[in-house]
Specification:
By secondary structure, the chain is of the alpha/beta class. The protein has a domain at 52-179: 2-Layer Sandwich (Double Stranded RNA Binding Domain), CATH 3.30.160. Helices cover 26% and strands 31% of the residues. Strands 1, 2, 3, 4, 5 and 6 form a 6-stranded mixed β-sheet that branches. It starts with 17 loop residues before the first helix and ends in a 5-residue tail after the last helix.
Length: 184
């Protein structure tokens, strides 16, 4: 200490305080991702020019009946809950139409009993082709895109094919709604 000044401290305030440097760095790093279209946003991921969707019943190209009803029901509920769109039945009032077909339903054995060979757990795989068309412009927003989802069940837990197909239809509906989101 010489003349009341510490050795590491400079006279005249040429060095900013640590708090000033910290605030400057936080502001600089905080603004890095917030410019133009490259930054963060709280806008909806779904296209804004659409208000209503007409849901067509999915076709079923398989021998398992009833899954098309489960998928269409799950998709209508998922669209209403997770998107800003309203489901309408009248084509004249709809901005878009979505539909498709279930192309395959596979059932796979996940585990078997070693002693008697019966299946203990199974998995259901649903494969669907989805189309989503904008009725105002005629553009295909989703064009024959194959989407797959699965669910498993166990007979020893009192679950059956119906239980797993309902879960798989809900998973498939969730994936279809995710496809309806616009690009980032």
């Amino acid at each position: 200490m010489k003349n009341g000044i510490l050795k590491n401290q400079r006279v005249g305030g040429k060095f900013p305080s640590a708090l000033t440097v910290l605030c400057f760095c936080l502001c600089a790093f905080g603004l890095c991702g917030c410019s133009g279209t490259a930054g963060y946003s709280n806008e909806s991921l779904f296209p804004r020019n659409i208000e209503s969707v007409r849901l067509e019943m999915f076709d079923n190209q398989t021998f398992r009946r009833g899954v098309e009803y489960e998928l269409s029901d799950a998709l209508s509920k998922r669209i209403e809950a997770d998107t800003p769109y309203k489901i309408v039945t009248n084509t004249d009032r709809a901005d878009t139409v979505i539909g498709g077909q279930i192309v395959s339903i596979e059932e796979l054995a996940l585990s078997t009993d070693r002693d008697i060979g019966t299946v203990l757990e199974s998995e259901i795989l649903l494969h669907a082709v989805v189309n989503w068309k904008n009725l105002k412009t005629g553009d295909l927003m989703i064009d024959h895109l194959t989407v797959s989802a699965s669910a498993s069940y166990s007979i020893y837990q009192s679950q059956d094919f119906k239980y797993a197909s309902t879960l798989a239809a809900n998973n498939l509906a969730r994936k279809i709604v995710e496809l309806m989101e616009g690009g980032w």
